[in-house]
Design goal:
This protein has helices at residues 12-20, 25-32, 54-63, 73-82. It has 83 residues and is mainly alpha-helical. Helix 1 (12-20) runs antiparallel to helix 2 (25-32) and helix 3 (54-63) runs parallel beside helix 4 (73-82).
């Protein structure tokens, strides 16, 4: 039977397993308190780069400091994904 870690930990068994894997108390608690049906969901809401315009891709590359002049859309997508 897993130890009771108090009301702040919702899934004591999962918490203990994560701690045994070497996770910090904070990270193990965050994961243990995430409902299983929500775990692993991607957080981003942005559209895939393929749906962005060339201008939007260039602007994003500039925001993160990547040189992108004279690149095609496919090259920009590759640059952003692999920087």
């Amino acid at each position: 039977m897993p130890e009771n870690h108090g009301p702040s930990i919702k899934d004591d068994e999962r918490y203990e397993a994560l701690r045994e894997q070497g996770m910090s108390k904070e990270k193990a608690a965050r994961i243990a308190n995430t409902p299983p049906e929500e775990a692993g969901r991607k957080g981003g809401k942005a559209a895939p780069y393929e749906e962005w315009t060339v201008d939007e891709l260039r602007e994003r590359a500039e925001e993160i400091g990547l040189e992108n002049s004279d690149m095609s859309k496919d090259e920009l997508i590759d640059l952003l994904r692999n920087h």
